[in-house]
Every structure is written in structure tokens, then in C-alpha cells.
TrEMBL record:
Record-given protein name: Uncharacterized protein
GO cellular component: cortical endoplasmic reticulum; cytosol; membrane
Species, as recorded: Micrurus surinamensis (Surinam coral snake)
Pfam family, one: Oxysterol_BP
Matches recorded under InterPro entries: OSBP_sf, Oxysterol-bd
Example GO molecular function: cholesterol binding
């Protein structure tokens, strides 16, 4: 792990965090929407996984290790309460990046 001096974080909803839907995906989305009827049980609709999350499982797991320095600090902590706070800080730090 190499610590960076500064890190650029964008605001939620910025253009850099949005993605334009390709024509191929638009047709797939329209096909799915045409299948949905009023009063239909939505749990029966099957969505392809790439619609729900475009990143791989390994890529999502790597978010938690982006701030490994927080976990290293927790390992050095003597007080159990402060150690637990640092572990929670490390765990929650993986959620700050919005997936593309």
C-alpha cells in the first residue's frame, strides 16, 4: 500500500459519476420494461447481472482494501474499544466510492 498525499473525491451526482447508457443496453431495458404489467409481482422479473452491477466481485472487494492503513492502525491499538472503532472506520471507508 502506498499512501497518497491527497485524494480527489467528487460530489454525489456529478457528471464524472454517471455513465451514458449504450444503445444495446437501452433496447434491453425497454424489453424488460415492456414485460412489466400493472399489479405484477416484480420479484418474478429476472434482471441480467450486468444491469445491476457492472463491476466484478473482485473489483468490489478491492474497495475495502483501498484504505488498508486504517486496518494497520487498528492492529496497533491497545484499547479494545478504540481498536473496534478503527476497524469500523476501515470497513465504512470502502463505501465512499460510488460504483461507475
Amino acid at each position: 500500500y502506498v499512501e497518497e498525499d491527497s485524494e480527489e473525491l467528487g460530489e454525489a451526482g456529478e457528471a464524472s459519476q454517471t455513465e451514458i447508457v449504450s444503445e444495446e443496453n437501452k433496447s434491453l431495458i425497454w424489453t424488460l420494461l415492456k414485460q412489466v404489467r400493472p399489479g405484477m409481482d416484480l420479484s418474478k422479473v429476472v434482471l441480467p447481472t450486468f444491469i445491476l452491477e457492472t463491476r466484478s466481485f473482485l473489483d468490489k472487494l478491492s474497495d475495502y482494501y483501498y484504505h488498508a492503513d486504517f486496518l494497520s492502525e487498528a492492529a496497533l491499538e491497545e484499547n479494545a474499544y478504540n481498536r473496534m472503532k478503527k476497524v469500523v472506520k476501515w470497513y465504512l471507508s470502502g463505501f465512499y466510492k460510488k460504483p461507475k
